[in-house]
Amino acid sequence: MTNIDQLSIDTIRVLAADMVQAANSGHPGAPMGCAPMAHVLFTQFINANPKNSEWFNRDRFVLSNGHACALQYVLLHLLGYKVSMDDLKNFRQLNSVTPGHPEKTHTDGIEVTTGPLGQGIANAVGMAVAERHLAATFNQPEFPIIDNTVFAIVGDGCLQEGVASEASSLAGHLELGNLVVLYDSNGIQIDGSTNLGFTEDVLKRYESYGWHTLEVADGDNDLVGLTRAIETAKSVKNKPSIIKITTTIGYGAAKAGSAGVHGAPLGADSLAAVKTLFGFNADQKFVVPEDVYTYYGERAAKGAQTEKEWNELVAKYAQAHPKLYAELSRRLEGRLPEGWEDVLPRYSPSDKALATRKLSETALSALAAKIPELMGGSADLTGSNLTRWKDAVDFQPESTELGNYAGRYLRFGVREHGMAAIGNGMAAYGGLIPFTSTFLNFISYAAGASRLSALSKLRVLYIMTHDSIGLGEDGPTHQPIETMAMLRATPNYLNFRPADGNEVSAAYISALQHSDRPSVLSLTRQNLPQLEGSSIEQALKGGYSLHTYGSGSKLDLLIAGTGSETSIAVDAAKLLAEQGLTVKVVSMPCLELFSAQSDEYRHSVLTPGVPSISVEALSTFGWHKYVHCPIGIDTFGASGPYLELYELFGLTPEAIAKKALKIVDYYKSTPVPTLALEF
Fold first, then answer.
1. Is 416 labeled as catalytic in the residue annotation?
2. Residues 326, 335: contact at Cβ < 8 Å?
3. 249 and 264 in contact (C-beta within 8 Å)?
4. Which DSSP state fits 220?
5. Is 658 in a helix, a strand, or coil?
6. Global model pTM greater than 0.90
7. Which residue among 416, 503, 592, 616 is the active-site one?
8. Residue 329: which residues within 8 A CB-CB, separation 6 or more?
């Protein structure tokens, strides 16, 4: 270890502890323990240009144990990213670029939002998938324009989470040799020693996944060992690598090696002692020796030179392979292919009744042929989700003889949570639009990751089928009731429940147009008719007037429906019209898009002064914002043929018409309140 290495490591330790102390909040222990491995990684291995954090062929770094973010912020500052000393001083303060856990949308140089443990390593797997696929798609002899490595630091807590196991298992199968994970094995978690509940042999576990495993026994001091381990890991091209690095949490602090240094400031006396131990002035705060700035500046300059050389290579690539260059440029600029919307089908009422999952298959197949960056798969439900187009090639290592890395269809296995987190990593990497698929009810397995899709503003498509009691005999274990309410309550989501083919096409258009938010497409197992009055253009508004039944000059009732219940609402309206009522049916495939429309438009659809009901074979939670009386299911479902279930839960045209008459009668003597107002 050279003097500058030691000085740099100690500077990272002290600066991170200063940040936590100033905020009176945070986690000093992991940054102090991880400082040596992070220093080696960032000064010797990671290729990136701090002056252009979006350089596409940069190495990616993920801090999976996001509570240790003071470590990452210090490194970003030292390297010259847009993280100033004042930003470090404002750690965990409102509107700072140094929030309490890393957020992709807040801080220059942060690749993914982490904090919920295990998500980061799973994101890293997704990034490694993206790199391997794009390299196979665009690289040519003498032009390795995409050849970066994905690095991650993880902690004991990350590796206890199921999502990490799911993603790591798949990474081993996929032979992702471009992924290197540094495992900070400090033996401590919040409750105390990991001996309380985490005593497995992690390296044997990862070896069984198909990973290459290494170990550094003294992560506090052995920089040579750390360097050799990372070099070896990078040299292994057919397996992801994990390096177990034994460290001391809170190295140098009075409570080092204990849970007491995990999630609280060191305290003034302990911090002063740490500074004295490492040769700093105990009375000074937020100090970086000029030699450390210089050392890290040299690494940043090397990164800038590496990007310059890459740009020169790309210029030659553009001359040698103009079509590939044009395609790569389009993707990196975030532009979808010209005319992509035109490939989506349109439907009329005379067209055949089909399940919306089948309509989705048609739409997705057309889009896959037009949008080559569309890549994804299913959690072992391909034949049910209908997500694999006819000429799709599986993303697999060639050694399996099941596909290749240029393939775009992913076999996620029964790993819903890992699938969603991998999708986030693919989206964050860039150049791809990932989709994932399972039954709607099982997005609950993936909620930890799907929530981060929204928080991180990532365009991930969740193609969810079997979306209600309409799936029938599989029963309440598989029938989503509360699921859509949860998704609708999640900020920055678009949740679609299309009623027919036109609305399915609209759902895909909107999902692909919104590059800063995820979308859920909730699709039926049962066949649905193509509706009179539906259109792609209208559905893109989230809600619209479908058709009015009856001959009166004044509306007596409004019925709003979504998905499979919209056609039921139509049939109920027809029954009421036969009894002399005038009823408008509104289709509301996406409440979020509808809520974003103007007051004028929303009130033109949900006519003020008219009694209204909604019909949805899901929880009624959230519907009171839009209608006076929501009709749905607020219990769990049941096992049986789906038509019998609809009858059991009162979701037939006859049952709805009967209830509707009571509502109309009630409001004859009671003022009708105006809903869906925004103040």
1. yes
2. no
3. no
4. T
5. helix
6. yes
7. 416
8. none
